[in-house]
Design goal:
By secondary structure, this protein is mainly β. It has two helices and nine strands; from the N terminus they run βββββαββαββ. The chain has a seven-stranded antiparallel sheet with strand order 6-7-5-4-3-9-8, with helices on one face. A hairpin with a 2-residue loop joins β8 and β9. The two termini are 26 Å apart.
Length: 152
């Protein structure tokens, strides 16, 4: 891991704060956990402008070669996730939802699914994790996806 710190006022005896953290290499393999986060993902339905977009909050776990998201609504598919993840270096997003029985209807929170977003390796996943915000430019509008700390 590399750290880049700025030196503040020499008179104020403060601790150094990392301005940039970058994972240079790791021995972790594909299934090992790098971290967890909450992804705020903006959504824009066709015909809507950025002012009326909605924001999803998805729980995420970063593994050495992929990101796994939970709480994925039924109307969210891989191509919509790749709006963000393609620019972050991901190669594929696979979404899976539970099959609802014919005799009952699941409440929305019980029918939420999962997504797996594949990356080349841990360095690419770490690059995504170290930035708190990522932009999505689409249909002439710029939206902001944010990574937040895990829910407790």
């Amino acid at each position: 891991v590399a750290f880049c710190c700025s030196v503040g006022d020499a008179q104020a005896h403060t601790q150094l704060e990392a301005q940039l953290v970058e994972l240079l290499s790791t021995r972790r393999r594909g299934g090992q956990l790098l971290g967890c986060f909450v992804l705020e993902l903006p959504r824009m339905a066709s015909g809507e402008d950025a002012a009326t977009s909605s924001v999803l909050r998805l729980d995420g776990h970063a593994l050495a070669d992929r990101v796994v998201l939970s709480g994925v609504p039924r109307d969210l598919e891989g191509p919509e996730l790749m709006r963000l993840f393609t620019k972050l270096g991901a190669s594929e997003a696979i979404v899976s939802h539970p099959v609802a029985p014919f005799h009952s209807s699941f409440p929305e929170e019980e029918s939420a699914g999962f997504a797996s977003v594949s990356f080349a390796g841990p360095v690419e996943v770490a690059r995504m994790l170290v930035r708190a915000a990522h932009t999505i430019n689409e249909q002439g509008a710029t939206q902001l996806a944010r990574l937040l700390p895990c829910r407790s």
